[in-house]
Write a structure and sequence with these properties.
Elements: H1 11-14, H2 28-40, H3 48-56, H4 61-81, H5 88-106
């Protein structure tokens, strides 16, 4: 039996402290929408989730800058390689950009990934 006059530990001190890192996605539907953004925009909006994540403080700003630079370079190379758009190299670059950006967007809230956070 516990003594009612003895001070009990506070629940504020015994509960685990949540991580201080902000989250990118508030719900599963929001996560799906953000993952679909690079796919639906055919790679043009590939860097948008990373810019938003940098503004929210989920990732460091340099990571968003690298992603914007990579998108500009890939889209620039694909445009310069075949102005008519009839090259399989152009399609491969665009597909690579779409797959990479959708995968990396899905990993933004993963606690196991520490690069750029």
């Amino acid at each position: 039996m516990t003594n009612p006059y003895q001070p009990q530990p506070s629940s504020y001190l015994t509960t685990p402290v949540p991580s201080g890192r902000p989250r990118m996605f508030n719900s599963t539907i929001a996560k799906v929408i953000w993952i679909l953004l690079p796919i639906v925009t055919i790679g043009i909006g590939a860097a948008v989730p990373f810019v938003v994540a940098a503004v929210k403080g989920v990732v460091k700003p340099w990571l968003a800058g690298v992603y914007v630079l990579a998108e500009v370079v890939i889209l620039g190379i694909s445009t310069a390689a075949a102005p008519g758009g009839e090259s399989p190299f152009v399609g491969m670059l665009i597909i690579f950009l779409i797959v990479a950006s959708a995968t990396h967007t899905a990993l933004l809230d993963n606690d196991r990934v520490n690069i750029g956070k």
